[in-house]
Specification:
This protein has about 220 residues and is of the alpha/beta class. It has a single domain, classed as Alpha/Beta hydrolase fold, catalytic domain (Rossmann fold), CATH 3.40.50.1820. Helices cover about 35% and strands about 20% of the residues. Helix 1 packs parallel to helix 5 and helix 2 packs across helix 3. The termini are far apart.
Length: about 220
């Protein structure tokens, strides 16, 4: 069973409430993963079931995982800042975790509004010469917010029947980047009764370079 540890951290608008989850059996972590939750003004918290599924997935992969409540959520101070302040706060969390766990790669993951935050944080990190190890985006917020371009090995998962962020909007965002997306048949935005697919696909693809590499392996008979 993995161990959890609550923390508070000074953010751009006051104290941020968060939790760290450690790999099982006190194993040395292979990396750090940061998870970003859905929109604060529509009930999104770090305990959202998709965010928790992402946390559990990374813990099972051997990562130490950090989540925070965005501004105005739970015990986190401040008010919603339409993504800019939230990205700043995630950057603060990134700096804190890399200091706490030096030398480990950092993966970024998020759900819905959290995908907007993580794509922009990934852009900042790449520009600073410290790119994220990889991104996992579930229910990517295409056309809801101005998403940044993403690396080719990003793992994207979307529900077929997502009526909050229609699949066509995600495809329109990805088409110029030529990046594929995993579509879960019958899934809605919140992946009711479909959460297991998220863990299954991320676990399956984590050791690969993405869907393109998986397709190449299949074609070659590997």
């Amino acid at each position: 069973m993995n161990k959890s540890e609550k923390f508070t951290l000074a953010g751009g608008a006051g104290q941020m409430e968060g939790v760290i989850d450690y790999p099982q059996d006190d194993a040395a972590p292979r990396g750090v993963a940061l998870v970003a939750h859905p929109h604060p003004l529509y009930g999104g918290t770090m305990d959202n079931k998709v965010a928790v599924t992402l946390m559990r997935t990374f813990v099972s992969l051997g990562y130490v995982v950090a989540r925070i409540n965005f501004r105005g959520v739970g015990r986190s101070e401040g008010v919603h800042d339409h993504g800019k302040g939230e990205t700043d706060d995630m950057a603060i969390l990134h700096a804190w975790m890399t200091e706490k766990f030096p030398g480990l790669p950092v993966a970024l993951s998020g759900f819905s509004f959290g995908t907007y935050v993580q794509t922009h944080l990934a852009q900042r990190l790449a520009a600073a010469g410290t790119p994220a190890e990889r991104l996992v985006l579930v229910g990517a917020a295409a056309k809801k917010w101005e998403m940044a371009d993403i690396p080719a090995d990003t793992i994207l998962i979307h529900g077929e029947h997502d009526d909050t962020i229609p699949l066509i909007d995600v495809l329109d965002w990805l088409r110029p980047q030529e990046i594929p997306v995993i579509v879960i048949p019958g899934a809605d935005h919140f992946f009711h009764r479909k959460l297991g697919h998220i863990k299954s696909w991320v676990t399956q693809l984590w050791g690969r370079g993405g869907l393109a590499e998986a397709e190449t392996d299949t074609a070659s008979g590997d």
